[in-house]
Amino acid sequence: MTNPVHVIGAGLAGSEAAWQLAQAGVAVVLHEMRPVRMTSAHSSGGFAELVCSNSFRSDDWEHNAVGLLHAEMRRCDSLIMAAAGAHQVPAGGALAVDRDGFSEQVTATLRAHPLVTVVEGEVEGLPPADWDSVIVATGPLTSEALAVAVLDLTGEDSLAFFDAIAPIVHVDSIDMGVAWRQSRYDKPGPAGDAEAYINCPMTKSQYEDFVQALLDGPKADFHEWEGTPYFEGCLPIEVMAERGRETLRFGPMKPIGLRNPHRPDDMGAYAVVQLRQDNALGTLYNLVGFQTKLKHAAQVEVFRTIPGLEQAQFARLGGLHRNTFLNSPKLLDPQLRLKAQPRLRFAGQITGVEGYVESAAIGLLAGRFAAAERLGADLAAPPETTALGALLGHVTVGHLLMAKGSFQPMNINYGLLPPMEAPKFDHEGKRLNNTDRGRAKKRAMSVRALDEVQAWASPLHVA
């Protein structure tokens, strides 16, 4: 019997990596330090716990790059995508999940798999030398001992950025005489629900007062981490406000595509706060885009000035934590192995991807690469024309073509894929305008990606 592959960390990436290995017939030892040792962001010992948003973002495979990544992962028998689909909650065109049910399914599935052995407890420092194949998927909250050991091995300094968490409120504490249910532009989600969001309107004066309260409110201090940048895709709301008083109105609080049924003759709200369902029961909703570093008392005071949330009861308040990631293009090879010690692979956010789906996707890649290696097979990287291949290129070689020091966490986007010329005519021969050409181009790139990922997605089997 061959040695097992050790996977350190049972977050999104580690859980997906373990699943891909086990499904290929390779024994896995999955190490998770929780609940023996908890982190500042987690609240349970469950696998794949979602500590920030409950959204996997757009599920539109034709016109959105993360939706394309969803589709590619489903074709690769992704455990994360299967659990997300089973625990989906209404979110317009996005794929959002009941975070507890999602985590429980991932945990139960892996614990029940005959080839997966779960070991609770922290892996301190570098893994033992006799672990000849290891996937380090410890995420943005990698324990200090392991992080220091990896840094010593590579001779690099860790890079880091701040990531923030949005508050969650009890839905029955929202005043629906002020707020209303509607998805932007009435766009239905995968389940057909066009009323997936709760909307709280603001007048101009209310918005201006709210922005001023964000700017004036006391913030959490992190003096020991001064100089750490924010990830641009998850900025605290008060940091956005500091960039200009209208920034929020053109960001998470944009009022377009919404109409207030309580005031049908009104021209529309000046700004709107949206809340998205956070659990399957529909009892909890999170404030979309409201990541924050405001102190807890200030959050309660400021967020209760939002019309409709005057009596809001919070199930969780927002927070801020520090994420770390490697200089992956320099340190990792094209199969995610550490060049300084190839028995170690890395997966998830620590490789320099941002987002739940992207983290799980890198776990999927690492798991399949490790399985192929253990089985004596030769598994090439997925085509660069696919979202999986483009994401792999981002964390291994893509940024080597850019200016030195430019490597930063990134979400999947069409800019990472090889371009295609936008079609000028539709299938009926009608000339397309610029907007329609852009959408047609994205669809063509997505169709190409799904065609080309199919062979790579074929199951790996024991020889």
Largest sheet properties: 6 strands, mixed
- When the domains are counted, the total is 2
CATH homolog superfamily of the largest domain: FAD/NAD(P)-binding domain
- What name does the CATH topology of the largest domain carry? FAD/NAD(P)-binding domain
| Poorly predicted segments | 399-405
H-E string: EHEEHHEEHEEHEEEEHHEEHEEHEEHHH
Class derived from helix and strand content: alpha+beta
> What's the CATH class of the largest domain, please?
Alpha Beta
- CATH architecture call of the largest domain: 3-Layer(bba) Sandwich
Counting DSSP H or I runs of 4 or more residues, the number of helices is 12
| Radius of gyration using CA atoms only | 22 Å
Question: How many extended strands?
Answer: 17
Explain how this protein is built.
This protein is α+β, with helices and mostly antiparallel strands. It folds into two domains: 253 residues, FAD/NAD(P)-binding domain (3-Layer(bba) Sandwich), CATH 3.50.50; 159 residues, Elongation Factor Tu (Ef-tu), domain 3 (Beta Barrel). It is built from twelve helices and 17 strands. Helix 1 links the parallel strand 1 and strand 2. The longest helix has 23 residues.
